[in-house]
Amino acid sequence: MHKISLKDWVVLLTIVPTTLIGLGIAGYFSYNRYVELDEYLSLRAKSIAEPIAIVGVEPIIEKNRDILRRLIGIAHRNHSDIVKNITIFTADNQIFVTSAYHGDTGLLRLKPDQLIPQQTMVEVVPNYLIFRTPIYDDIRQQSPNLVYENALGYIAIQIDRNKVQFRQQSQIVIALGIVVFGSLISAIFAFRLIKNVTRPVTSMVQAVDRIREGKLESRVSGQLVGELNFLKNGINAMAQSLGDYHDEMQRSIDQATVDLRESLEQFEIQNVELDIAKRKAQDANKVKSEFLANMSHELRTPLNGVIGFTRQVLKTPLGETQRDYLQTIERSANNLLAIINDILDFSKLDAGKMVIESIPFALRESLEESLTLLAPSAHKKNIELSLRIAPQVPDSLIGDAMRIKQILINLANNAIKFTDKGAVCIDVDIEHQQENKAKFKVTVTDTGIGMNSEQQKTIFEAFGQADKSVTRLYGGTGLGLVISQRLAQEMQGDIGFISEERRGSTFWFTFSCEINPVILDHALPVEALANKSILYFEPHTHGRIATCDILSSWHMQVMPVGSLDEFTTELAQGQHYDFALISHDVTPAALPELKALITLLQKNTHAIHLAVNSNSPSLHEVLIGNGVTSCLSKPITPSRLAKSLLPQHHASTTQLPVAGEQKLPIKVLAVDDNDANLKLIHALLKEQVQEVHTACNGQEAVAFCQTEKFALIFMDIQMPVMDGITALKAIQSQTFNDQTPIVAVTAHALSGEKEKLMVEGFSSYMTKPIDESMLKHTIYEYCDLTLLSPQKPPAPTFDANHLALSIQTQAIDWQLALSRTGNKVELAKDMLAGLVSSLPETKSLIHEAIVCQDIEQVSTLIHKLNGACCYTGVPALGKITHEIETLLKQGQLLEQLEPEFFEFFEHIDNVLDEAPSVLEEVAELSTRV
Q1: Of 169, 186, 216, which closes a domain?
Q2: 483 or 145, higher pLDDT
Q3: Which part of the chain is the HAMP domain (predicted)?
């Protein structure tokens, strides 16, 4: 914005107001004079015309032109300075007499359509004014009350305006001259003021500008008057002060520069020391990684022996008790192996390399497995352990079940460890649910020793423990809660606690999971229990509520009692029950009481079931010998309870036939560069649709789509020749399958990858291994079929589950292999054999690529192997392969992944070592069946 200078302000505030005032006054008086001259001219004209009109009545009547001619001639001569012509017209608009016969009488005559005016009227023509005054003859009629006027004619006078206009213009010129003169006088004073005020101010401004530019020696000179002299002195004093300050600051800067140089020399020395320390730390970290990798191998080797020989013994004929013991040993060893893996992965958590899986799982089944592992510890301390899952909690989820169980086992183990008597209660509820995602809350409450305020502050520190004394009562590494906290945060949740010393603690953690749209088929065969009555005795409130929820969900008529008095009162009524379930804490002193209860119960029911806090087979046999139908160990879980109440139905469920289905009349294209993956997806699709085409890369898929029309296309993403995204764009732009739904199928799903693929144009997204139910749902959704194929009667088949349970090693999970091939033994065997045959070459190629630092080749080989692992039962190899692919996609260097590759090659060796015996055993068992 333009700034107005002081000089401009002086001009604006002096000359401009004076000029405006002068113009206003001159205009006012000029206008008044102009109006006065016009009025003066009109009055003179009227003073000539009106007397003549009065005197000329009789001459007109008498037609005496001489009198009127003399009269108007005198008037014309007397007023010749303004009168140009005087003419008298008759009533018929004819000239009666005129003072200037050579004048323009036509200008004075009225127009034919004009009437004689009733009074003097004026008409303005260029340079002239025409005044017309009527001449009337007043005649009084016989009636004295009636008078009328008779117009005899009119007088027209032509007035010259030139002289008047000249006088008006002269007045305006004189007024403007006065205004100009006044403005000149004002300008003279204004410039005088500018010279005396603005010039000194301008010199001061220039001096200030020079001072601002660093020329501190600048001063304002000259003798000024008044306030300007004070301002000059102030500016000069300010410049002197700034100069002094500048000199002092320069001296300080010089000193600071010297100090800074000394500090920089010290920093350089420290940087060298830090660089040396960094290299030592990197070397130490490398040694630590190698140590962890070596320890991983050393710790797993004996555990593999324990687990392997336990599974071998389980294949031999065993009693029920022996089998239960061995299965407990196997579960404990697997749990120990998982804990070791978590401890070894602690460094990965710090580095942010922990990968949370997203696979379908059954929540209740996973929690029951955790409680089975926790039960012996609780029984040993005679602690009541119970689990209650809210009825509204969904069971079929997509998430990382192993990490959820790890957190729960850690919190529950701590609760049992720090509780000497009482109970450990576990509650599972849903915090909120939005569309297909939900947040769950698991609460573990104990009646143990609790924590004081100091212990609570350090509970989530690494290697921190509540008991830090030399004579520790409670063991532990101090990593459990730290790992649990990080895992909960990785699952978009949190962890917290409420504790009071000597009054117990309540730990809780939350986690988020997707709700699986495909319901996992884990329903228990409890239809026969509907409307059956059961008497349930449980002194512990939490356990009683949890079990009542289970029984009520089976539509049983439950009669819960919580004390011996209520129990005996209920029995005294003599009501008969279909079942009786007695939950009792077993101690040597309580056995006689328990036997008495059994005897008393036999009058009211014939099916008595006990739930005791012991795994002792001998105790179970003693109790069964006293008339009990069955005896199960606490905590009570739905599967154990159903097996006890309906043992015959549970036994029948070991045969799980595969239901045949009618194929859908559609054509589907599957694209994958891995032969094993392509074989599996072809087999899965062939069971659901009539016609399946396969392609090994995107180019073949485009060629198929140019000649065939498909109802649905399943497209792998990373492929040679042409990748999945390029093939998608080519199919949509170059073929007549542009409207065909294309589903992305990939073995790797980073955060945000699904959204990226949907933006590229894919209709849906599926991760490997492909879930058969999800595949069926996808076909239903995108092929717009009203109904899926009706179920056929179940076809007889062999016991796939028994075969799965009997074959399991450290590296190969045959049950997982079967589930990923739809319980097809031959297909699972072929998939495993194909993977094993390709592993030596894959291992060699990856090793060569690592040596050559070819990260692109490593990523390609790892991705291909990850896809192959998705369809075979090699969970350990699949997990580490998936983890390495994730880290490579996140930009990790090969040197940083040295521990992961060490573990990766170890898992490949384990698979190669165990595969021949597993395949041989599968073949042998298949022939037996």
Answers
A1: 169
A2: 483
A3: 195-247
- Identify whether the C-beta of residue 581 lies closer than 8 Å to the C-beta of residue 609: yes
Instruction: Enter the tokens of residue 142.
Output: 């016989």
Which CATH number goes with the domain that contains 100?
3.30.450.20
Characterize the bridge pairing of strands 742-746 and 712-716.
Answer: parallel
DSSP 8-state assignment for residue 897: G
Please count the residues of the chain: 929
Going by DSSP bridges, is the β-strand pair 359-362/396-399 parallel, antiparallel, or unpaired?
antiparallel
- What's phi and psi for 645, nearest 5 deg? -75, -35
Q: How many C-beta atoms surround the C-beta of residue 920 within 10 A?
A: 10
Neighbours of 153 (CB within 10 A): 23
Angle between helices 875-889 and 898-928 (to 10 degrees): 150
Q: Which amino acid is at 806?
A: S
For residue 608, what are the β-bridge partners?
580
CB of 715 within 8 A of CB of 727?
yes
Are 39 and 63 in the same domain?
yes
Establish if 271 belongs to a structural domain.
no
pLDDT, position 814: 81
Number of domains in the chain: 5
160 with 15, same domain: the answer is yes
Pseudo-torsion of CA 60, 62, 64, 68, nearest 10°? -30
φ and ψ of 620, to 5 deg: -60, -40
Same domain, 872 and 917: yes
Pure H helices in 793-897: 800-806, 814-820, 825-851, 855-869, 875-889
Residue 41's nearest CA partner among 166, 181, 212, 187 is 166
Kindly provide the residue ranges of all beta strands, DSSP E only, lying in 404-494, ordered along the sequence. Answer: 423-434, 437-446
pLDDT above 50: residue 470: no
Quote the pLDDT of residue 870.
Answer: 75
Q: What 8-state DSSP symbol labels residue 589?
A: T
When pLDDT is cut at 50, 70 and 90, the band that residue 524 belongs to is: confident
Q: What is the extent of the structural domain holding 366? A: 360-515
SS3 category, 133: strand
513: β partners: 438
Q: Contact, 96 vs 108, CB < 8 A?
A: no
Chain centroid to Cα 300, Å, comes to 42
- Per-residue pLDDT tens digits for 472-489: 445 455 567 888 888 898
What's the sign of the alpha-carbon dihedral 767, 771, 776, 777?
Answer: negative
566 alpha-carbon distance from chain centroid: 56
Q: 505 pLDDT exceeds 80?
A: yes
Tokens of 684: 């899965």
Give tens-digit pLDDT for 637-678. 888 888 888 876 554 443 333 334 467 888 899 998 877 778
The one-letter code for the residue type at 717 is: I
State the Cα–Cα distance between residues 886 and 124, nearest whole angstrom.
103
Instruction: Reduce the secondary structure of 143-196 to three states and give it as a string.
Output: CCCCEEEEEEEEEEEEEECHHHHHHHHHHHHHHHHHHHHHHHHHHHHHHHHHHH
